[in-house]
Amino acid sequence: MKGLAMLGIGKIGWIEKERPVCGPLDAVVRPIALAPCTSDVHTVWEGAIGERNNLILGHEGCGIVEEVGELVKDFKPGDKVMFAAITPDWLSLEAQGGYSMHSGGMLAGWKFSNIEDGVFSEFFRVNQADANLAHLPDSISPAEACMLSDMVPTGFHGAELADIQFGDTVLVIGIGPVGLMSVAAANMRGASRIICVGTRQVCIDAAKGYGATDFISYRQGPIDEQVIKITGGKGVDRVIIAGGGVETFEAAINCLKPGGKIGNVNYLGSGDYINIPRLEWGVGMGHKQINGGLMPGGRLRVEKLASLVEYGKLDVKPLITHEFHGFESVEEALLLMKDKPADLIKPVVMV
């Protein structure tokens, strides 16, 4: 089969590999829609998780089941399916402990394009199909299903990690597709004021639609100083970090109220350490919490988030700004995600 792979740090290309073998609990799926992610960019061009050679990229998409293992109960060849970017081993001790995304080791629930071949191929394997696949409802398009692989669950997890409560003032740093879903989730969880850090007009317009109330730009000065100013010196109750680098945490701590919480879902592609300012952290005693987490995967998660789309509570269509056609277009879409032109939020490839 053909697949778009990371050949090494800074290099991508098309390669030929054997079709994946379907284990007794697994499924082999043929993609019908695929979406590149900024995570693919971090992985390839920043080498964020180390060297990977001839590893097929991609972790967002949907498809049609081609083959199922003998122990799979709920899926059969021909079924249209969704999946999350994170496909844990649900029989692991880590899953039993409540951290399925780390089943088998830290971040090991993230298999596609990390420790196993990803979905930018003519066929891909989904481990433990009954637990990691979900049926694609007729009312959800394949393009929308791609957003349910990663953008929606990751963005929503940012709001969960920040523990947003009714009436909270929330700062969302970065309003790319994940940050936009964090805005939507913060709004759903009852945030009263949602301050966004972003500069691209297409993202600002989308954020307004999802419930954002205020906007600041990192180009106009330090983020924390601007937040303190527009909140009358009070700062914010919660911060969701969905963009930026390791330096972003310092600004987040500086404008966070005592007892506040930071939810980080940003894939930090470079830098060795995160600086936490001592005084602004209350000399270690300010009850300012930092929670960073890989989003939960699995069938139940996908089904619940899909129901928000299915019943009109969440519209993911504003995320999709560019549509490509044909499997070979995956490379062009990935390079577009790398270059991030001003009118881009998210590209989707209809296979």
Task: Give a verbal description of the structure.
The chain is α/β, with parallel strands linked by helices. The protein has 2 domains: 2-150 and 295-350, Quinone Oxidoreductase, Chain A, domain 1, CATH 3.90.180.10; 154-292, NAD(P)-binding Rossmann-like Domain (Rossmann fold), CATH 3.40.50.720. Helix content is 27%, strand content 24%. The protein contains 11 helices and 16 strands. The strands form 3 sheets. Strands 3, 5, 6, 7, 8, 15 and 16 form a 7-stranded mixed β-sheet that branches. The chain has a 6-stranded parallel β-sheet with strand order 11-10-9-12-13-14, sandwiched between helices. β12 (236-241), α9 and β13 form a beta-alpha-beta unit. The chain is globular and about 60 Å long.
Helical proportion? 25-40%
Whole-angstrom Rg: 20 Å
Q: What structural class should be given to the helix and strand makeup?
A: alpha/beta
Strand content: 15-25%
Flag low-confidence runs: none
Strand/helix succession: EEEHEEEHEHEHHEHEHEHEHEEHEHE
Quaternary structure: single chain
The count of domains is: 2
Distance between termini? 15 Å
Biggest sheet layout? 7 strands, mixed
CATH topology of the largest domain, anyone? Answer: Quinone Oxidoreductase, Chain A, domain 1
CATH class of the largest domain: Alpha Beta
Give the helix tally.
11
CATH level-4 homologous superfamily of the largest domain? Medium-chain alcohol dehydrogenases, catalytic domain
- Give me the CATH architecture of the largest domain, please: Alpha-Beta Complex
The overall average pLDDT, rounded, is 97
Give the total of beta strands. Answer: 16
- How would you describe the shape? globular
